[in-house]
Design goal:
The structure is a single chain. The protein is an alpha+beta fold. 49% of the residues lie in helices and 16% in strands. The protein has 18 helices and 16 strands. The strands form 4 sheets. A 6-stranded mixed β-sheet has the order 8-9-7-10-11-14. The longest helix has 26 residues. The protein starts with a helix and ends with a helix. 42% of the residues are buried.
Length: 499
């Protein structure tokens, strides 16, 4: 249906009601991550995510009497709908009330702005209306955040939910195989949503994240939290209704395809995908599957969107490897910080170097948990050596542009595997690189000269044909006098792939 015809139909449906003939509705789930990560139980996390996703179909059902083209997009817990002005307020109330009923403790904000009928050939109306709607939606969400800031105490003689610990335990879930059976209505709604979903109901057997990542032999693996975000997708979609409608569907389809290939990489019963936004990919998998899942997501993203967006869409990827017993919200926050670190590096590459590339960052937490979620500060404190005279030796090159990640790490790792460089040899070389960087450079040249397999990798596979080039690959000296090595990033990937 052409835009002109859609506007005519919606204006006719408004009838002779007073006021402008049209309204633009926008909705967005509030504090989505607080709701989804209220507990660490896989089936409750999955159920919460399904409930959030369900609001998009709910919104479409609420406006089912309108032409289908009146929905610009509805995915990831957010949507945009063009409606007759006379129906706008009741539709907003229906969306907010419907999500509240389904989620029990969740909240959604739906607002609208009135629209006069655009003149024929006027393509600027959507940009102006969308800007006004975005400002109104943000304002209302901020107001609601202040209104709900207070904590509702529960008297000590009443029992709290045995799962989330936040609300009154007024329900009994006898179907649950674990101990936490006395729960609140919100947690029960999440469990029911998970049980009712054919793809997700297998998670009922996973009482915690350790069950999600456990190997077939019963050993626990670490957990990987993978968070990917399409860079500047809002601005790339443009300010035209038809373009935004078409590309929003393409992006939503691409996100679902990315999740599907990541699920396959993880295997049945070993993944948990979550809603994070319309153009975000968020999935939990065992650490042993993380790299293959990331590679599959990046490839699928571009296979689905290449040719549909100009300039080409870019994906920023952050993933965290950590103990599966750490609080899942804490792990998500770290993964989100890593994704933002990759995104900032992508912007820096484009602005400073003129290179528009995908970017990736990752972190492995072993034997404890860092207290600072600021990734740059964490690396300055833990992975930077002070050499004096304002010079430093950085033990990581993260984050990476995607081509750097593939060529400098993945390609080299594969070459080392193919030529039989053992893991013990890799670790031995890493010990030498912990020396002063100039000493490390000399040690590297010596170690490569006496290791035939490693020498073949450098000379034949990555074309570093003399000792100076060997040294520069492992420890580079920058123009400002600082030193960098990416070898420990390579070693980290080799260890992760080894499981």
């Amino acid at each position: 249906m052409e835009m002109k015809e859609l506007i005519e139909k919606l204006c006719a449906m408004n009838g002779s009601a007073a006021g402008p003939p049209l309204a633009l509705i926008g909705y967005d789930v509030d504090r989505i991550h607080d709701y989804v990560f209220a507990t660490s139980k896989p089936m409750e996390i999955a159920g919460a995510s399904l409930i959030v996703k369900g609001i998009d179909q709910m919104a479409r059902d609420i406006v089912k009497d309108l032409p289908g083209e009146s929905v610009c997009y509805a995915n990831g817990g957010a949507g945009l709908v063009l409606v007759p002005f006379s129906k706008a307020e009741s539709l907003c109330q229906g969306i907010e009330g419907g999500f509240k009923k389904a989620s029990v403790t969740g909240s959604c904000t739906a607002v609208f702005v009135p629209l006069e009928r655009p003149a024929d050939g006027d393509n600027a109306w959507f940009e102006e209306a969308f800007r006004a709607l975005s400002a109104k939606l943000r304002r209302r969400k901020d107001e609601k955040a202040l209104e709900s800031a207070g904590w509702q105490p529960i008297p000590g003689y009443l029992v709290r939910c045995e799962s989330c610990g936040r609300y009154l335990a007024s329900e009994q879930d006898d179907k649950y195989e674990g101990d936490e059976k006395r729960i609140c209505p919100s947690c029960l709604a999440k469990r029911k949503a998970c049980r009712d979903n054919v793809k997700m109901n297998v998670l009922e057997r996973a009482h915690d994240l350790a069950d999600l990542v456990r190997r077939d032999n019963g050993e626990e693996d670490d957990l990987a939290v993978i968070y990917c975000d399409a860079r500047d997708m809002g601005s790339r979609l443009g300010n035209d209704w038809d373009r935004r409608q078409k590309l929003s569907k393409a992006v939503a389809d691409a996100v679902e395809s990315c999740l599907e290939v990541a699920r396959k990489a993880a295997g049945d019963g070993h993944w948990l995908d979550l809603v994070a936004g319309g153009d975000d990919v968020l999935i939990l998998v065992p650490a042993r599957c993380a790299l293959s899942a990331v590679l599959a997501i990046q490839k699928e993203f571009h296979s689905k969107l290449n040719g549909q967006l100009t300039p080409e869409a870019r994906l920023d990827i952050g993933y965290l490897i950590a103990d599966c017993h750490l609080p899942v919200r804490y792990l998500f926050d770290y993964a989100q910080s890593l994704m933002k670190s990759a995104k900032n590096y992508g912007y820096e590459l484009a602005d400073v170097c003129g290179r528009d590339k995908d970017a990736i960052d990752w972190l492995v937490i072993k034997g404890g948990s860092p207290l600072n979620r600021d990734i740059r500060t964490l690396r300055q404190e833990c992975l930077t050596r002070d050499l004096g005279s304002s010079r430093v030796y950085r033990l990581t090159r993260k984050p990476y542009a995607w081509d750097e990640f593939c060529n400098n790490l993945l390609k080299v790792r594969k070459a080392m595997n193919d030529r039989g460089v053992s893991r013990s040899q890799l670790k031995s070389l890493g010990v030498h690189l912990l020396e002063h960087p100039e000493v490390a450079r000399l040690n590297v040249a010596y170690q490569v000269a006496r290791n035939r397999e490693l020498k073949e990798v450098l000379e034949k596979d990555i074309k570093r044909e003399d000792s100076d080039a060997w040294q520069d690959y492992f420890v580079s000296k920058e123009e400002d006098g600082d030193y960098h090595t990416g070898y420990f990033d390579l070693l980290e990937l080799a260890e992760l792939e080894g499981g």
